[in-house]
Amino acid sequence: xxxxxxxxxxxxxxxxxxxxxxxxxxxxxxxxxxxxxxxxxxxxxxxxxxxxxxxxxxxxxxxxx
Length: 65
Fold this sequence. Notes:
The protein is of the alpha+beta class. The chain has one domain: Metal Transport, Frataxin, Chain A (2-Layer Sandwich), CATH 3.30.920. Strands 1-2-3 form a three-stranded antiparallel β-sheet. β1 and β2 form a beta hairpin. The model has no long low-confidence stretch (mean pLDDT 96). One of its GO terms (molecular function) is endonuclease activity. Keywords: Endonuclease, Hydrolase, Nuclease, RNA-binding, Stress response, Toxin-antitoxin system. It comes from Crenothrix polyspora. It holds the Pfam family HicA_toxin. Belongs to the HicA mRNA interferase family.
């Protein structure tokens, strides 16, 4: 069962990422320890794609370094 977009956003916020806003259904999250912003696309109730889950997991791991 894929995660929902709202769950991915919640995980990012718990890891200390800040929502910079975005355009339409896109949101940009930044963190002081992560070089590139993380872009999350989709409405909160949508199922997340597998690549979105992988990108967010990698960004959270990078933020812990």
